[in-house]
Amino acid sequence: NQPDRHPGGLPRRGRRAAPLPPEEQAFFLGLRFSNFQVRKISWGSDSFIMMSTESDKKRHRDALKNTAGTWGKVHENPSEVKAYLHTPTFDFLLQDEQNRISLARKALDSNNLFAPFILGLLLGKLSEKENRISFGNIDVLRKMNKRFEEVFEFSMGRVGERPMGNKTSRFIVLQHPDMVISALIQTRSVQRLSFFRNLFEATPKRLLL
């Protein structure tokens, strides 16, 4: 049975208001570190988390529609894609960056959560031209690179820093992004994601072996 809808097409509380499995929360935590906007909105007596992107890149729009969109209602127009998600299920996305970094560290320490977290981060932040993931915390980047190599027995890539004006850019340049993606999507924790099949639509085809 489909959940009831608000007149505006927003989902009422129903089966998708259930708690997120830990693997899916880790994935969305990784995705949240991208340039997607997240805010809380109200419709009558109900509240929702709206996750949106104004990106014109198909992979960013598909990543939102084919993952978060399966947990709510998607509204799309040429300039924006919005996914309306249940609260409190997705309230963790509203946490400030420092709290999200703390959750990222915990996800990377977990055998079941590190792969979904890294995959979410890759889908949201991987630069197509430079195969680079930018991230503000160098310690998390190093931890992620080390954890990946411990599990898969090859390195994600090179961790680096570069001054950019008054700021410092911190990043990993992936040596073989197709191999990294392939390793992640073969883990059981990623394959347990309810939207696992949708990931193949959200992932650039050049990265799928």
If you had to describe this structure to a student in words, what would you say it looks like?
This protein is an alpha+beta fold. It is about 35% helix and about 20% strand. Strand 1 (about 35-45) and strand 2 form a beta hairpin. Helix 3 packs across helix 4 (about 115-125).
Features of the shown structure:
209 residues, alpha+beta, 4-stranded antiparallel sheet, 3-stranded antiparallel sheet, 8 helices, 7 strands, globular, disordered N terminus
Largest β sheet strand count, sense and barrel closure: 4 strands, antiparallel
- Give the fraction of residues assigned to helices: 25-40%
Q: Based on helices, strands and strand pairing, what is the structural class?
A: alpha+beta
Low-confidence segments, given as residue ranges, are 1-8
Describe the global form. Answer: globular
Strand order in space, largest sheet: 1-2-4-3
Number of helices: 8
Tell me the β content.
15-25%
Radius of gyration: 17 Å
Q: What is the residue-mean pLDDT, rounded to a whole number?
A: 88
Distance between the termini: 36 Å
Total number of strands: 7
The topology string of helices and strands comes to HEEHEEHHEHEEHHH
